[in-house]
Amino acid sequence: MQLSDFSFDLPDELIARFPLETRTASRLLHLDTAGQYRDRHFTDILELLEPGDLLVLNDTKVMKARLKGKRATGGAVEVLVERMMDKFIAHCHVKASNTPKEGAELFIGPDEVKVTVKGRHENLFIIEFSQPILDVLDKYGALPIPPYFNREAEDIDTVRYQTVFNDPAKLASVAAPTASLHFDEDLLQKLEAKGINKTFVTLHVGAGTFLPVRTADIENHIMHSEWCDVSDESMALIRETKARGNKVIAVGTTATRATESAAQANGGELKGWTGDTQIFIYPGYQFKVVDRLITNFHLPESTLLMLVSALSNRDNILNAYRHAVDSKYRFFSYGDAMLIDNINT
Fold this sequence. Notes:
The protein has 2 domains: 243 residues, QueA-like; 77 residues, Thrombin, subunit H (Beta Barrel). Helices cover 21% and strands 27% of the residues. It is built from 8 helices and 17 strands. The mean pLDDT is 96. Its EC number is 2.4.99.17. One of its GO terms (biological process) is tRNA queuosine(34) biosynthetic process.
């Protein structure tokens, strides 16, 4: 299967660079098992889900992971913390006019907090901070909003680029689980009152989510690694939901990747699992957990577009996307949403 099979034309004006005034105000395009789509509002999710269904949500929290600084010589650098390995060591992306070498010292913020390049880990730099990383991020960091926003982070992003149910103890992502940004407390309470259950999993989203696929044959693509945790309790709820004939609805591709990774790691059994995942879901993949998916509209030729094409099929997805473009849906992280039904369930 070729990368070009997942291409579509997207006018720049349909990229949502700022959130709507309220979280639940977005539109919802429902794509059913027959490949038919219907225009809805996001709050219609209340009538589209049934009592006894289970929402699976990612409770990670986005770090203020982007740091601006300078070299000892004064040249500008930008450090993006991808993964904290301990209190002082992190794997990071570094932007600079010249690639910093092992032993190079960089300085963050007006207080010139020193960070030292200790080596490389794959395409990342191993960076040692002279002060606790979270303290430095809290003082000098900016939210790493997506590159396609083409702007700096603003005050509104501090609130709206986080989910309302994020767990402060799970401050480790460099991108939001954006499908969850559509939920507010009121909608979650209404879903609960209807008898729709929810459970939380954790996948710390890495910057690799924005990287393009660079191979013409998608099967040659190597996915970036992300850490996830799916508890035994969450998997027990998933098993119980399926046993009584209800649906498991993943909220976002990260919740999908976390639960499907757990099932894959356990040989198809629905059991808890913690670890690094490089799962790559594309057409032909057989889902073991997810019956329905709430997700945003994704970039052309992206692994996320391939994932949703595996749940429905490529033609259904691209037809729905063409309709979304014609109907001026808003795309990407702050954009509108889809509810996609698994055609194999």
